[in-house]
Request: fold
Amino acid sequence: MHTVEINTMTGASRILIGSAFDNVSSCLTGKRLVMITDSTVHDLYHHEFPEGETIILDPGEDSKTWDVAHGIYARLLDLEFDRNDFILGIGGGVVCDLAGFIASTFLRGISFGFIATTLLAQVDASIGGKNGINFQGYKNMIGVIQQPEFVFCDPVLLKTLEVKEFASGLAEVVKYGVIMDSELYQLCEQKADRICKREAGILEDIITRCVRDKCAVVTRDEKESGERMKLNFGHTFGHALEKVTDLSHGAAVAIGMVLAARLAEKLGYLASQESARLVSTLDSFNLPVSADIAADQLYEAIRKDKKRRGGQIGLVLIKEIGSSFIHFIDLKDFENLIHDLC
Ligand SMILES: NC(=O)c1ccc[n+]([C@@H]2O[C@H](COP(=O)([O-])OP(=O)(O)OC[C@H]3O[C@@H](n4cnc5c(N)ncnc54)[C@H](O)[C@@H]3O)[C@@H](O)[C@H]2O)c1
Reply:
């Protein structure tokens, strides 16, 4: 078992990698508990849940809405929940984002923690304090930054994940390697087989590295005024691909990372062997590396991205695997480059 601690302006958090249900009760002594989960996770693991009330959501992104949040606030009022009580989110990124948002806003904030049950939640969504909901079709439009008291990440829980959900998390693992952690990247290259077989030992090692990497970035830039943007590597293209195709998040991010690497190549920052290395690693994780999409369609979707500033867009680029930087580019130049890429 590994423990990573993070201490920021919005609180301190302990992330425990290598166990979950066996140890969570020791973090909850004397507190009244409401658990928020989804029906898939509930069906699989409810027999291991600690004692307490359970709110069960429909699985998937459609639950990350104001209407669902409204229903949960009403239920907490009915239960006469107070500031000494505790909210435990048990699930993937959707459950963690929503549970963290409810806990951070109800009664101006009550204590909360997570058991993260998807690889994406264990390496990314449950870590770093961003909690929120989607609004009018825009992702994560309403939210807060507040650290959970604890997060449990148990790789054993990943055995039941669907292949595409596991691959989604692997895309984020590769992302950390590419932007800041060449040793993690090498681990992905050398142990792809064992990772794909979901061996708990190797998963615990890579999850721990990802959590350490994310915590280091968040500690330096919690409010995303600079360095935290690096965690969006591949996501500008990825979110646009998600909007205009039926690709899953992980697949879209994988292709987005390849596009960002090829852009870095075109701008003269990255050697072509490094892009080829990225393609081969994604391939070994059964992630796609290209999509059949028109340049105009991709550009239009990116132009509407909320992260653009005036006439420029901020992109995360790489110089080599393990080292990234933020590059602002005029939208017009960017449009021309996209036509070269697609
Ligand atoms: N807050 C952040 O910093 C942050 C970062 C990245 C992503 N996110 C958010 O995370 C969300 C995506 O998270 P996700 O990919 O975990 O999706 P998810 O929570 O929808 O989970 C994916 C699917 O896996 C199922 N599932 C969960 N755990 C399981 C298990 N152990 N076994 C079998 N099935 C299981 C769920 O029921 C769901 O159907 C998005 O809403 C995204 O915006 C947030």
Notes: The first strand starts at residue 2 and ends at 8.
